[in-house]
């Protein structure tokens, strides 16, 4: 996964592909956002940020409460889904 996380654009493309796959198999937007929240929680605990964008996201994640973190996760899904 470190290759995927080394460049933010690569991470966005990876996430976009996973969102598309989820939609293709019938996952709802809510389910995809919940999965994004779980992935964000995992990354926060286990992976050091690899670039400036990830460092900003981690800082926002760290100061946010659960609802704000879910918003961040949902916005990341929306960002890649609309690009």
TrEMBL record:
Pfam families assigned to the protein according to its UniProt record, in alphabetical order: DUF3243
InterPro entries: DUF3243, Uncharacterised_YmfJ, YmfJ/YflH_sf
Protein name, per record: DUF3243 domain-containing protein
Organism listed in the record: Paenibacillus chungangensis
């Amino acid at each position: 996964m470190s290759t995927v996380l080394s460049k933010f654009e690569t991470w966005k493309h990876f996430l976009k592909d996973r969102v598309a796959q989820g939609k293709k198999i019938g996952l709802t937007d809510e389910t995809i956002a919940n999965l994004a929240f779980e992935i964000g929680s995992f990354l926060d605990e286990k992976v050091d940020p690899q670039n400036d964008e990830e460092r900003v996201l981690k800082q926002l994640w760290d100061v946010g409460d659960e609802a704000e973190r879910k918003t961040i996760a949902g916005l990341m899904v929306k960002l890649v889904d609309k690009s």
